[in-house]
Amino acid sequence: MARARDPIADLRRIAFLLERANEATYRVRAFRSAAKALAGLSSAELTERAGNGTLTELAGVGDVTARCVAESLAGEEPVYLRRLVATEGSDLDAEATALRAALRGDCHTHSDWSDGGSPIEEMALAAVELGHEYVVLTDHSPRLTVARGLTAARLRQQLDHVAQVNAALPEGFRILTGIEVDILADGSLDQDDELLARLDVVVGSVHSGLKDERSKMTRRMLKAVANPHLDILGHVTGRMVSSRPAGVTGPGDRGHRARTRAESDFDADAVFAACAEHDTAVEINSRPERQDPPKRLIRRALEAGCRFAINTDAHAPGQLDWQRFGCERAALCGVPADRVINTWSAEQLVAWTHDRP
């Protein structure tokens, strides 16, 4: 008889691959919910229920997930998992592959503390499995209430929690502290300066007033870029090129229901010149529905002398593997690895964020 596989690991792997493939949220949720429901069972009870057909009596376990569990316990790779693996996307070209291999971490991710769908621990372990050396946790700031943005008090609690999680993670990997802070209408950052100074990495993004007229948006972004606490300018145009992706299952899910959205209008040359002057990195956002900045602006930022961060803006574990999409676009624009800050080690990255003028 074949040796049993780990059925919970198989369910989580299926959910990860569904997220990575940008499949519907309900499919992802079905497998994650089943894995969570079964995690509390002893191996004996799990085997007994699979044998007598009572797995589906448990809340969160359906016919499809129960069948996957039975196949795993029989020592077979679940058919559902096998099909997903067989239909994965095409390989990256050589330049994008080399750039992806050079990345050592991800500087923009979310957890269920704000509008992500998974706990911090689960996001971190998925990053470990992908070969990352670090991941920066950048949940939203308080003004973005639709995404359950963190107040100063909740952010302090999160910092304590991250310290505890780091102590339990595999050696050689760490969660870096951070935030995706709102760039407010006047260009100020939506969090206390004292807290921003404590964080390892600060990503700043515009989430409101995206249709502001050109001069107003330019002033707003220039003031933010000049702020010494801002390390990375996130999804710079705010555009949406397609509908909301799968896998976002957190309380702030409403914040990701946008359909298509035009780019904000601003003086890109002035903003990128300021980024180069203040050594603020420009994010290449890897989310399929964002693809932000567009390639023409990546090229202009490169010509301006900017650094870049190729980030996933992941709200679920499977989305952490979306960096390949950003690498494809960066490679097409000729962005070299030595201009990408997350090719650095965690120590180099933190030294840069803390030593910038």
Sketch the topology as an H/E string, one letter per element. Answer: HHHHHHEHEHEHEHEHEHEHH
Approximate helicity band: 40-55%
Give the class from helix and strand content and strand pairing: alpha/beta
Beta-strand content estimate = 5-15%
Note the gap between the termini.
64 Å
Provide the fold topology.
Blueprint: H1 7-20, H2 25-39, H3 43-52, H4 63-73, H5 79-86, H6 94-102, E1 105-109, H7 120-129, E2 134-137, H8 152-168, E3 174-182, H9 193-198, E4 201-205, H10 214-226, E5 232-233, H11 268-278, E6 281-285, H12 295-304, E7 308-311, H13 323-332, H14 346-355
Parallel strand pairs: 1-2, 2-3, 3-4, 4-5, 5-6, 6-7
How would you portray this structure in words?
The protein is of the alpha/beta class and 357 residues long. It is 43% helix and 10% strand. It is built from 14 helices and 7 strands. It has a 7-stranded parallel β-sheet with strand order 1-2-3-4-5-6-7. β5 (232-233), α11 (268-278) and β6 (281-285) form a beta-alpha-beta unit. α1 crosses α4 and α1 (7-20) runs parallel beside α5. The radius of gyration is 21 Å and the shape is elongated. It starts with 6 loop residues before the first helix and ends with a helix. Residues 246-257 have low confidence and may be disordered.
